[in-house]
């Protein structure tokens, strides 16, 4: 990841290219995480070329969920909108809600957590708007851990209710 701003917002480290490729391979094979790539529909429909090149052109970010045990009861979610021109346009919230709906309906996830940097006001505001509450703060890592229990709040379903979630194997 080349952008210093993006690395700071996502608490990511710069990796050599070979390590980036190795991490992508690991992600594809691991059963304890899931990624949705976020595309801008207008960019996709407005671009030229074959299906694959149009998808690459339209990529604006991703949303991930991680599971720390064999149980999918609790998942840690994170969102990254890499393209600065796509931030603040609802892509992150929409994709996060779709991921949470998928995890809840298909994997029976009942609690979501997220760790967000103190300085990332936009993400904190978005997660709070979905009903996430502060669990803890880490001055060492400069981040806030938020949680949402589905039994107490499933507002994410409202934002993702118009989507068909299809499992392709």
TrEMBL record:
Q: One Pfam family of this protein, by short name?
A: Acetyltransf_3
Domain of life from the UniProt record = Eukaryota
Gene name, Swiss-Prot/TrEMBL: 106079305
Q: Which residues form the N-acetyltransferase domain?
A: 18-133
UniProtKB keywords: Acyltransferase, Transferase
- UniProt similarity note: Belongs to the acetyltransferase family. GNAT subfamily.
Q: Which InterPro entries match?
A: Acyl_CoA_acyltransferase (IPR016181), GNAT_dom (IPR000182), NAT9-like (IPR039135)
What this protein is called in its record is: N-acetyltransferase domain-containing protein
- Any idea which GO molecular function terms this record carries? N-acetyltransferase activity
- What organism is recorded for this protein? Biomphalaria glabrata (Bloodfluke planorb)
